[in-house]
Amino acid sequence: MTATTAPDQGTKATAEKGLKGSEGGVGNPTTLWIVRGIVLFIVLIWLVPAVGLLVTSLRQQALIETTGWWTAFATLGDTGQWTLAHYEQVLTSGGFDTAFVNTLVVSVPATIMPITIATFAAYAFSWMEFKGRFLMFATVVGLLAVPLQVALIPLQRLYNGFEVTIPGLQYLMVPLINLTTGTDIAVGNATAAIGMPLELNGTFLGVWLVHTGFGLPLAVYLLRNYIGSLPSELIESARIDGADHYQIFTRLIIPLSVPALASFAIFQFLWVFNDYLVAFVFLGTGRGEQVLTVALQQLNSSQTNSWHLLTAGAFISMVVPMIVFFSLQRFFVRGMTAGAVKG
Amino acid sequence: MADTTTGRDQAPDPDDTIEQHREDIEQHREDDDTVFVEDKLGAGGAATVAILGVVAALAVPGLLYYTLQVAFDLLSEDLPRWLVGVVAILIGVVGAFALYTAVDLAIKRLPRRISERVQPYAWAGPAMVIVAVFLMYPAFDTMRVSFMDRSADNYIGWDNYRYVFTDDAMLRSLRNTVLWVFFVPAVCVAIGLGFAVLADKLKRLESVSKSLIFLPMAISFVGAGIVWRFVYSFRIATEGTNQIGLLNSIMVGLGQDPLNWLRLEPWNNLFLMIVFVWLQVGFSMVILSGAIKGVPGDILEAARIDGATEIQIFWRVVVPTIMSSIVVVFTTMIIGVLKVFDIVWVMTGGQAGTEVIAERMIREFFVFRHFGRGAAIATFMFLSVIPVMYLNIKRFREEEALR
Fold first, then answer.
1. Which of A58, A149, A341, B380 registers the highest number of CB atoms within 10 A of its CB?
2. How many CB atoms lie within 10 A of CB A220?
3. Would you tell me which residues 251-290 of chain B have a C-beta closer than 8 angstroms to some C-beta of chain A?
């Protein structure tokens, strides 16, 4: 009750507390060195495969096919062993340039749409009283576990258009049609259906919608956990001051939720950027539509042992995720902990 | 990070502010009373609220879809890709928010006792509508199609399920998926927890080492598949042939024969699992590390004063305290493993006894074009995920009870 006047101080105090919590220690210096050694060893194992990929993508093709990538370190002075030709080849004749643009066109809207929709829903689930609130939220959380595979067949069929026969509708529609067009159709032989022709297979819109649908449960779950854990005194006092839900939402909740929003945005962006299955099924493997992961798998299945192209292609597909990850890492990690470890 | 309790740790207010608050609260109570009197709705009012609620829930997704569809029809097919992106971003960001605002304004024009009840449905409804179309409808439709034939035209009873549990490749995929579920989450939790505990003891090295372990999380399964196919790559050993794959080079260095790792049944399944662990340990490590930092310092202090060793503290204090986080990691990993597809698809194509159920599903559906069998496998996947789903919802209930 006493904190209601100082929301900003509240969040600062939380941040400081989090930092202090990270101090832990072992007194013994020998133990510390052993710990350090183990940690470094694991890190090294984790890095080696990726380093191998990067080094290989930059070596001359003849060298790649005759010696291991680690031998490049023995001849570091020899600048003639390095080349960017594989990247050029993959980007131009390999079609990775178009694939790169396509990937961004898929990823950005497919990140922003679910966030907007989920934030409104998360607020409603947290701070509005209404019938079915728990049931609705539990449904969304439950749907978090629906495997993507479950949706593929129905959605691909739905995307070709749909038609639902409604029994009895003909008794309303047929006289209406007869009346307006002057025809004389017999009601007894007619069936009536509501339908919609769709052409969403192979379109960006179709892919955005699938990603929005599949991003929502997690977004609602994470954001509700975050927004619901904001101090209730804060919202109460804003209500007392006469603010309505919309004002509280835009002026209080969104600014306070930036860490959670940013972290989910990064998570969803990387998920969509790295997705293969949805793009493969709903966009396809055509040269004009394919995204990076699809282009890479096409290359992988057609040129199984062209390591100079495969490594360069794989690295191109990793550049954006790595930039995002390194530049926005603190948001990413902070949000993941806030959302999933609450309580 | 958000900690509800910190609000109460603020410096105490001066007396007069408390007095002010008390007045505010009294005022608020009176408001509540008046709202309550106004709030009673007749049957007609309830029906109005129900209808308006449904309309409000449908408004945003319907209009959003319509706007996007019309925008792209108008702009035609030939426009540059980046322009498609920019238009989509504008509609997706500004459009969605503007639609919510417009709907909210419209609702506020209704009588207050009705608008207050309709508003939540306008906010939570769009999300419900979208998950209904993209998750609930497909879930039911997949179950229906699983009883139908190849092209999903006629019902054929249980035949597809008989196929799922008798076909050789399917049986191998079931065995392999069980192995994945058995090993991968446990290994991820073990390595993640171990690394989190160790890194927690270090000061400067902590964040750097954690970032590097976390790094593979940022890359795709397909990319990781290429990375590891290269590590495992194999060339038939003849005089003068160097192994260019790291693992086989190590084997040769140790005086062993090089092995075709990805064809080596049944161990090739293990080599595929390593790729998943390499990618996903970062998640487990970050979640568990956060949980460990959340263990109250005074409890640890008390245990140390009582003479407990670090190992005892870990098993008897830290692990029980962070149990709910461990469960979260486990459930998340199990769901991830049941859906694992790309790694197998890219690295072995399901050959040499490495089938998994998700990979079989895509093959039946997309390669063999047998909708009925694909749907039956998908249904089976869905049913095996339900116990995990139950745990997730249960956790939410417990949380709600504490609020």
1. A149
2. 30
3. 278, 283, 286-287, 289-290
